[in-house]
Write a structure and sequence with these properties.
Layout (H helix, E strand, L loop, with lengths): L1 E7 L8 H14 L2 E7 L5 H9 L5 E6 L1 H11 L7 E6 L5 H5 L6 H10 L1 E10 L2 E3 L2 E5 L4 H4 L2 H7 L1 H9 L8 E7 L2 E13 L3 E2 L2 E2 L13 E7 L4 H13 L7 E6 L1 E14 L2 E22 L1 H5 L3 H7 L1
Parallel strand pairs: 1-2, 1-3, 3-4
Antiparallel strand pairs: 5-6, 5-15, 7-9, 7-14, 8-9, 8-14, 9-12, 10-11, 12-13, 14-15
Helix pairs in contact: 1-5, 2-3, 7-8
Length: 310
């Protein structure tokens, strides 16, 4: 039998896994897995258990929100050889799962762990930490981890927007120097997103159809300081239409990004508190996360990965 470590966050989402755990384990056992179960009790528990015991298992499956997957990924990145990862979403938004076509219904996601295909996904490094789909700063990026858990459980996505409305008068501007691929941009910014996903907080931020989650590249989106109502309207229109032809927004792709700020900047990683920094370097680790997903995703790999296999 294949050995599996099953890590779950009992508090994620609407705590729905408490009523689904038996069904999930039954499906996984029927799929030929010998399972060790670990329930997280606090922050970074998942990272610790995976880093300490991950080499004992062929598969590591987690259930929780994107933050739980972030912690498991961080643990995997401490291992020389990465076990196959599975994800059973139990959070409120689950951007990463949506990008990989992992079902929102937990029993179906468990079946996918048994029947799905392995996709080698990129992982982002943020200084000495990691993220699976997004790092960000500025307007609204703090909303995810500042939103009370009971709001998330009761209101779902609406809870994020309610919390976001409270922050509009307090949007802070940061003077930054952004370096990537020999380019340097220096300006005042209110928002920055560096992602490996087509969706961030439920918002599909990019209109490009050729975004690949295994191409070794980040998608970066930055919004400059909004100085008047006309610029605000132009920025909102650009975000709605995904046509970033305003001078207040710029977008690019890169495998390495360095950002320096004149002041302390609060960052978020996969929707969780990422810490406060003045200097940040982000690197893309291509193919670092072998994760089970829908077959249609695993077949749609980048040409770089095809070349590597050949």
């Amino acid at each position: 039998m294949k050995k599996m470590l099953f890590v779950y966050n009992p508090m994620a989402g609407k705590e729905q896994i408490k009523n689904k755990l038996s069904d999930i384990i039954q499906i996984l056992c029927a799929g030929g897995f010998e399972i060790t179960i670990f329930a997280t009790q606090g922050k970074e528990d998942a990272t610790r258990i995976v880093a300490e015991r991950g080499t004992e298992y062929e598969y590591i499956v987690c259930s929780g929100g994107d933050g739980t997957l972030n912690e498991v990924t961080a643990g995997l990145m401490h291992l020389e050889k990465h076990p196959v990862c599975g994800y059973i979403p139990a959070g409120t938004v689950n951007d990463f799962a949506s990008s990989l076509k992992i079902p929102k219904i937990m029993k179906n996601a468990a079946k996918l762990v048994v029947e799905g295909s392995v996709f080698h996904c990129d992982v982002g490094q943020f200084n000495d930490r990691y993220f699976t789909y997004v790092s960000g700063f500025g307007a609204f990026t703090e909303v995810s981890y500042q939103t009370p858990q009971e709001w998330k459980n009761a209101l779902g996505k609406a809870a994020y927007f309610i919390e976001a409305l409270k922050h509009i008068p307090n949007i802070k501007t940061h003077h930054m120097r952004i370096e990537y691929d020999g380019n340097v941009i220096e300006d005042n910014f209110i928002l920055g997103l560096v992602s490996n996903s087509v969706s961030v907080a439920g918002y599909k931020a990019y209109s490009k159809m050729n975004i690949m989650m295994d191409d070794g590249m980040f998608e970066a989106l930055f919004i400059k300081e909004i100085r008047n109502p006309l610029e605000l309207q132009a920025a909102l229109n650009a975000l709605m239409t995904k046509k970033f032809d305003t001078e207040r927004i710029f977008q690019f792709s890169s495998s390495k990004i360095k950002i320096s700020s004149d002041d302390d900047v609060q960052w978020t990683l996969d929707g969780e508190d990422g810490g406060v920094f003045r200097e940040v370097t982000m690197r893309n680790h291509q193919y670092a996360l072998p994760i089970i997903c829908d077959k249609s995703v695993s077949e749609n790999v980048s040409q770089k990965y095809i070349g590597k296999c050949e």
